[in-house]
Amino acid sequence: MELTDDNLRTLSNYLQHTLSPDVNVRRPAEKFLESVEINQNYPILLLHLVDKQDVLLTIRVAGAVAFKNYIKRNWKVDDDAVDRIHAQDREAVKQLIVNLMLHSPEAIQKQLSDAVSVIGRYDFPNKWPDLISQMVEKFASGDFHIINGVLHTAHSLFKRYRFEFKSQELWTEIKFVLDKFAQPLTELFKATMNLTTVHANNTDALKVIYNSLVIICKVFYSLNFQDLPEFFEDNMKIWMENFHTLLTADVKCLQTADDEEPGLLEQLKSQVCDNVALYAQKYDEEFQPYLPQFVTSVWNLLVTTGIQPKYDSLVSNALQFLATVADRAHYRYLFEDVNVLSSICEKVIIPNMDFRASDEELFEDNPEEYICRDIEGSDVDTRRRAACDLVKVLSRYFEERMTQVFSSYVQVMLQSYKENPMQNWRGKDTVLYLVTSLASKGQTQRHGITQTSQLVDLNSFATEHILPELQKDDVNTLPVLKADSIKYIMIFRSVLPREMVVGSIPQLVRHLSATSQVVHTYAACAIEKILVMKASDGTAVVKSEELVPIAPDLLNNLFRTMTMHGSQENEYVMKAVMRSFSALQARVIPFLSELLPKLTEKLAIVSRNPSRPHFNHYLFETLSISIKIVCTADANAVSSFEEALFPIFQGILQQDVQEFVPYVFQILSLLLEQHNSGTIPEPYMVLFPCLLAPVLWERPGNIHPLVRLLQAFIHTGAAQISASEKVSGLLGVFQKLIASKVNDHEGFYLLQSLIEHFPDNNLSPYMRQVFVLLFHRLSSSRTTKFVRGLIVFFTLYAIKYGASNLIAMLDSIQPEMFGKVLEKVIIPDVQKISGNVERKIAAVGITKLLCDTKEMMDGSYANLWAPLLQALIGLFELPEDESTLPDDHFIEVEDTPGYQAAYSQLAFANKLDHDPLQGLGDPRLHLAQSLQQLSAAYPGRLNTLLSTGLTDTDRAHLKNYLMGANVQLL
Predict the structure, then answer these.
(1) Rounded distance between C-alpha atoms, residue 169 and residue 113, angstroms
(2) What is the pLDDT of residues 332-344, one digit of tens each?
(3) How far is CA 165 from the centre of its chain?
């Protein structure tokens, strides 16, 4: 693609079409851009278009977004992938992008800044050493639009230091950055602080200056997160004194009338609290001189800051700072006085646990956000959660005093509610939140609370204050308290009596009909969590027979809930449906004639525009378990499912609904496996050639489900597939998979299925080439995962075709190759194999090599017989070898734009572990029997074989083992 005006106009037109609401206009434009992005100069064209002043800003922004997504998709090159960006384009992009970003409008600058950070993640500093220098020199420009652009880029580039694992490579990079960036950043910070005084009366200038300070503080946090840099330790006085100035600053002109969104001042103070909390937590010794003034200032901040939502993040971070300080042993004296604790509870904790008007508004108008914050513990900081964290820290060290202080508040608020429930319900809400926070010391996602404190007796509190709320006739009165009460049952389900928890299910079922989305969502969530509970003996707490009497109401209410406004795609409700089906098992069958059409109708609706990943996942899980339950009872019922699902699946595959295609493949596998006739039905055979199309295998999310489906085809009708002459196509898929470090195990799964089920003569023409491919990969990239798969393949081949055939095949590729494989692969690495079935295959295959081959007993490989036996016994007796090989690497998992559907495994559609040696029994016994037969057929031969290849100590150990297994040596 040349840099011509015509090409720029064409690109502009297609970008404009990508903004169209009409899918028939938008989708072809997106497809065109995808098709041309591999052409040389494509990213340069995009950058030139973004820079053209005479092009509409909306198109330029669209171009910037397209460029960012292109970079995210293509800049990283996997070990086994082709580089989709030309080398000249890579260099040109790095030369152009920084300056272009800095003089672009803000909307474009943000997109290009993100692109710079992506490039930096892979190229900085080794392939882009001058990036920091390019950025730092812009600080001298004095233009805060440019300076803020540099700071935004620095922030997006360095913020990964907050969550990266410690490594020498990371330390080296951070040191490189600090050497070039710490001093200029500090000078910029001082200069910018000075400008706050110079422009104290210029509101517009102050907005720009304080915006810069916010980003500077964020960059400071990233650079100091891993360890305390020497430069910042030496200059701590400059930073901390200025932080304190900012924390106590009262800039009237920056105060906003908006009660919802935080202004610059709130954002800045919030980040300062984060920064000093980091120092208090990680570098408390160095920070100690500055701590008292910050504690005083943060305390004053908390008692003077209003309840408006715009202060939420600031108050949350301030509370987290106090919690951090209280958790450090040598600062704990600050909180020991009972008067201090009372003051904290009265002036800080209780006010920030109150249910505000803004919380009620969120509860009613944005229930999904409320749920996300309340029971999911989302990343959004809330005052309540921060106050709760402070309570937990103080309770850890001053439990008795805290319990004493809070008990009086609890009694007063409960009495107030009792006197006038409709007027004083907020007080009971605060009590319930407080009890939930203070009473829970240990908690897990699966079991809820596992340890409790002394604040209240949970059982009597539930009897007096929780169950009465749930037993009221009207499920719609005081919905906040209804939600709190359900949450109480849900959180304390592991410590409340079984009778109370199971007995609450009918009340929870009743609350599924509540009009409040929060209430019926909490009810569904609680039901699901109770149904999944296990007793100490591993059985379900809720027995299937206990659920049967309420099953009609449970299922009807769950499905009715999905017709309510806002809950048509409620993930908690669908998860409860899935769990109910699972708990009821065959007892759900009478209801399915009515419920399955509703599920398939829901699938048809959501497949048109998938927007709720969790809901969709549980929907497919529910369909999967329905298929398993019904087809277990009646195998012929599979045709009914196929009749209902195939038209929808056909639409999903034709429309290429990427999110759903992996699910469709998994359910097709499940359906196909229900056909036990040994014949693949015609509709599946029509689909089969399409599954081998390379385009399907380009998407990572498709790979495991496709391999699973191909295995189902091979298992069900190997002869049919063989007759259709598709063996070469299957082996082509294997060749692609085996070349990939990420997917080589999938290639082995496919190959093992072919070996197990295909007639020998169908595969024999291809097997030599298969071995050659495997050795090529072994020599080019030897990873632990690949070696495990290779050993299992070799041993399965020996079991299926004979151990002598394996030796002959290897030696036909290269003379004495089998000996090299034993010495370099099988003997040193067999201990790395994991998985019971895989270890069994390896054990039996090696046994056949030891006992069924003349080459090992009398031939040129006899010297390796004893070491191989020693390796096999190690497989039985020693733990798995978890050491890794040099070519191993960690596969990065990250969100890739330009959407790539991730593979999500359907637990209820997963095939059971398949053991091709199911009838064989214990491989140890098989080895002993084989060796006994060998000893009987060749008297004295075992002693001869043991005489070479081992030290005297190892030989003695082996002889002891053989005698213990009753194997005759003489």
Answers:
(1) 24
(2) 888 888 888 888 8
(3) 17
